[in-house]
Amino acid sequence: MLKEDSITYGTARPFLEPYFYMNFVKDIPSCTEGDLTDTADVTRRFYNIDFSFDDNTVVYPDPEPVKDPFRAIVGLSFGKDSLLSYAVADEIGLDPESVYVVEESMTYEQKHKTALARKFKKEFGKSLNILKHETGKFRDYKYLGLKQSEFGWGLQTTEYALECLPFAYALRGKYLLFGNEQTTSATYMSEDVGGPWLINPCFDQSHAWTVHLDQLSQAFSGRSVRTASLIEPLMDMMIQRVLVHRYPKFAKYQMSCFTTNEEGREYRWCHHCSVCAKMYLMCIGGGVDPEAVGFRQNMMRKSSIKYYTLFGGKSEMTYSNTQVALDEQLFALYSAVRKGAKGDLLDQFRESEFYDEAKAREDELVKKFCSLYEPISVPPELKKLIMPIYKEELASFEI
Fold first, then answer.
1. Which of 13, 46, 96, 262 is the most exposed place for a label (fewest CB within 10 A)?
2. DSSP state of 137
């Protein structure tokens, strides 16, 4: 960030240095893709930095476990993934408590989510556990007076896993749950001049990294707190469908939009971004009403075409460039048309070669996006409880 050759920390060498180092290195190609910078140059600069510490003695975590743990601690962002995680944890009897993280750099998002959190607390009688993420200022480029960059945001889940552990001790948490679904492990190859480079847009939310987060939470809790994702077995569109179809009382709190533009100043869905476009499409493709999660405008209007990468549009999210994401849009549009959804873009899709492709690949796409995947981050005792729920919901979906 600062283009320095060395840095000295006034601390001992951290126990988790290898975790954060690997996390950051794996995130570099995704960051440079978003920043339009050279991956090789950035990787070389990071690799060549001299890191030094006041004391090279690594201090190990206290082995004291959480006393009588039983419940789930859910990192609740009010996106569909975290809401479904909370809802499923509630159904299987984990008595979930949520931790709502405030990122101060997200001005409008913070305003809307704080209001949602207060309503959520009032309706469900749960504590309003707020984590004010002040270390987020290390990647708040406006606060630092630096040019905006993606660097640092890819370590978010790893930071939250650490910072949620005190809540586990206070609330007797046995499981720390994050909404890392099946597509977070999707990758693609960049077209970087010095590449190609393998890009994982959500590395710290991937299944393999969730297993490492489980190691982290166990190491810092005397082996008493497990980290997992209850929704890993599902693809995006089915997550959206299950949330609205099975848990409407939680779905009405959904906010996936980052509200970074002026259209998002007064309402939690700006209706003018690729995230709003995607969530709207996931709803109609899954056969549920977008109004159930708060949409007020039709994101299938002609002016929204620029938000769909399948139609050649652009997205600020690099994961929209994966083949999985493109196939997901293809299948969701096809399913929406088959279900009689309305909109200019659906009319255009129906008359395009994309519709013919989707029809020819229907069996393949159904299998890909409506299947139940074998999870690697779900503890066995929870797996046997959640899989029947998902099987029941997937059986209720017809294209």
1. 262
2. G
